[in-house]
Amino acid sequence: MLVCNPYEVVIHGTTNKGKVFRPSDWAERLCGILSSFDKNNRLSYSQWVRPILVDKVRCVAVDKKLEADNPAMFRFLMDFAADNDLRVIDCKALLEEREEAAGQNQSDGRVSLAEAIEEKHAAEQKKTQEQMPVVGILREIMPEETVTAFAALSVLRSSLTDINRFVEQINTHQRPAGYRLLGIFEEGKHNAVAVCGFHVAYNLASGHHIHIDDIVTMPQNRLKGYASRLLEEVRRIGAEAGIEKIHLNVHVSHDRADAHRLYFKNGFEIMAYHFRCNTK
């Protein structure tokens, strides 16, 4: 049974063309941006945003009060829905829509909405894969549009849960220290689908070099070569400035294997161990 209240809107897990949105855990990922850990170290979703199922389709319920409590986050969620062509439905309207669909199914024996969507998705999947890939526009993300990098970077950095604090940290602390952002934007989308953050550094060990701090592509926009394009742009920027070396750190866990392959493919080598310790 669908449980939502009149104070919520639902970001439905189907596009306006009837396709089920991927990846399958998108709703949990989106809600995770506002989640936190309780006193028992268990993940707790925000009171404003939660994942729900509607006829076996993953969706996200957003409390309308979030618009007043955190306008930037509410706008981010609505932009996310618009960027990915997802339906945004008032909860009351969704309940009425489901009741109408259920009545029609009982009267004429038609399959459920979820089954119909899945069937259509399977039929269109091969055709979609054969279509020419979307070519995004690569450009620098300036201070007044830092917010457009939040969606992608929150996938890479799970600690990012406050969009306002994110913008403040980047613009107030990191940019003055030389941090720059590159983004790839697809037509009709407000947020960057791939982001690279880097800065120029000097030290005795490496001399004058570029250090890449962050690089990520949104899960639904991967396998389009965006990360390689970002790395090539950083390489070009470095060459124009007379900087010969680019450095980055990457974790060695098995779930980072795709990142390792990306860097090897783009000419990076493993040069050192990275050590760290706690102060207490």
From TrEMBL:
**Where is the N-acetyltransferase domain positioned along the sequence?**
139-280
CDD domains, sorted: NAT_SF (cd04301)
Coiled-coil regions in this chain? none
Q: Which Pfam families match?
A: Acetyltransf_1 (PF00583), DUF3579 (PF12112)
Which Gene Ontology molecular function entries are recorded, alphabetically?
acyltransferase activity, transferring groups other than amino-acyl groups
Keyword Ligase listed: no
Q: Which UniProt keywords apply?
A: Transferase
PROSITE patterns in alphabetical order: GNAT
Quick check: keyword Transferase in the entry?
yes
Under which name does UniProt file this protein?
GNAT family N-acetyltransferase
